[in-house]
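## retry 2 of 3
previous attempt timed out at serialization; input unchanged, resubmitting
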Amino acid sequence: MIPIDCLQDSHRAWLLDGGLATELERRGHTLSSRLWSAERIISDIESIGKCHHAFLSAGAQIITTASYQAALPGLREYGLSHEEALGVLHDSVAIACRERDTYFRQTGKPALVAASVGPYGAYLADGSEYSGNYGLDVGELVDFHGEQAGILSRTRADLLAFETVPDYKEALALARILERTAKPSWVSFCCRDSARIQDGTPIETVARLFADIACVFAVGINCTAPVHISPLIHRLRFSAPNKTIVVYPNSGEHYRCGIWHGDTEPFEDNGIRWLQDGARIIGGCCRIGPEQISALADRLKTVYQGSWQNHLYRRTN
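## retry succeeded, writing output
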């Protein structure tokens, strides 16, 4: 398997998967409950496995679990007992590890599993991850995230991915949790523009919260418009120089009234540019599927004139 230390090698690039939920929707699954893609863990876990397999086959070396919206309070409100809710978290990791291990046996290509932890806004299921400012204090957010993070940290997942963080208080709560966490982790922020996360806090401010936390090997940006990514990478490299940069933006489209609007960005071209800007783990979020991940893998092979996974990328910028 891939040693986690390799993800901190500034001369290497790693390919992350894309948007699991929008890939499920593309395959005809309706995600109408508050649990979103996490509901499929309960009702049709094999659909999750097929998506993981598709991203691995496309070239992804890191796949994220379907636990983004599987907050324990949300699972209990769905009608599950506490033990059943714990089972959902464990199942989300088990299906990803199963597909990763099967793919390795079939191809000899290793991959890592990142256990996803969504923001408080994902539990609310009202779009709050795109605004922040929940009205909760830091202690309440520590209580909300602490148990789920602890459970996932004890699974077979290789790392934890705290995703789509839009809010300074939530970032501060996660920093307090991660100070006592051993599992390798990254924290990625959802941004409103090229300088600030969704609640208006400069990205430098939240990135510095994790600068001295040993288990946090990477900071980054996800579910953010591609046009903002390059300036944000440069801000993160300045404010967190000892961390790997992870980026997985959305397609550039806008979601309104249940419909995606606007044009998509050329994902593979953007991916090469973000690599040149200094990102080292690159993937996609909403509306980035296996096809786009495969296209980026092909571009990387062209850049390296061979198997890009076996080459070192040396910055020229």
